[in-house]
Amino acid sequence: MSLTFIPRVTQLDSLQLDEELEELFKNLLFQATKYLEPGFLQPLLPELELILRSCIFKYSLWDRKCSFGQEMLSIKYKTENFSKSKLYWYYGYTIGLKYIKDRSLYTFTSNTKVQNVLNSLETFQLFGDIFNFLRFIQSGKHPAFIDFILGLELCADKVVREDLTDLSWTRELLWHNFIELIGTSLSLVNMFGLRQKLSKILKYVWWRNYARPSNKTSQATMNVNTVCAVCSEKPTLPHVMGCSHIFCYYCLQANKMADTDFTCPKCYYNGKSVTKFVVI
Fold it and tell me: Per the database record, which ranges form the RING-type domain (predicted)?
């Protein structure tokens, strides 16, 4: 027997999951095409996003009558009121309008009339979303504006997430604030400087030989597999400081500014000068 009551937070979570999944697919697509010529795909970006969203729509709502986010939370639309005509309207509102807007921004940038029409349409959608959200908070049904327009209702065979009480809300908010505090604090810590200070404090421990700074200069070489000694990515504006390792200019300069005694994280060489890497 399917359940008709679904907690509001579960319905909102499904919308958030759908957005994050779409962003994940887009990032994977961009990663797969990052070695193409810069700007090569820029004119086709609206079409690529249209194809991506259409594929997601086909394998989720069209085939399963639920989005991927809803499926992850074990909820779905009632099949008896989700006809093919409503699927077409759903596709046109959620995907077709986005494509028209994105393509118009590329094609009709200087056309004032077209831009005014698009702005009016976007304003209508915004007011519709605000109205629907206020209505959803009160009724607990139709979390998306298009759901309200088409009369789509959600159901579930089981609810996998508990209905949040005041205690669980407080616990969840405190946990998120604690994680945010840790993330902010860690970003202010100079990890390389901290490791260097720990190496000096523990220099008489058995592993001191592995952290002994090198004072020998050596010639740096660069090939297709060379990565920055700090960020482990392909060096941007390659620079060196006397050892055999190569750094991004910003990685090296930022650490030098933060810690004047900065040493190479690979060989612990303490180079005082920063020079541009030149292929010999």
Answer: 228-267
**Overall pTM > 0.70:** no
| Buried b / exposed e along 54-66 (16+ C-beta atoms within 10 A) | eebbeebbeeebb
Strands, E assignment, the chain: 76-77, 154-155, 238-240, 247-248, 275-276
Q: How far is CA 142 from its chain centroid?
A: 26
User: What is the token pair recorded at 82?
Assistant: 């989700």
Phi then psi dihedrals of residue 39, to 5 deg: 85, 0
CA dist., res. 82 & res. 87, Å (int): 7
Beta bridge partners of 276: 239
End-to-end CA separation in angstroms for the chain: 74
Q: Which tens digit of pLDDT belongs to each residue from 76-135?
A: 888 887 788 999 999 999 999 889 888 887 787 777 888 788 888 888 888 888 898 888
Ranges of beta strands (E only) in 126-181 are 154-155
Buried b (16+ CB within 10 A) or exposed e, 130-140: eebeeebeeee
| Mean predicted confidence (pLDDT) in 256-268 | 80
Question: Using the 8-state DSSP alphabet, how is residue 238 labeled?
Answer: E
Confidence band of 206 (pLDDT split at 50, 70, 90): very low
Strand order across the 238-240 sheet: 247-248, 238-240, 275-276
pLDDT band (50, 70, 90) for residue 13: confident
User: Do the beta carbons of residue 13 and residue 76 sit within 8 Å?
Assistant: no
Class of domain 215-279: alpha beta
What is the distance, to the nearest Å, from the Cα of residue 246 to the centroid of all Cα atoms in its chain?
29
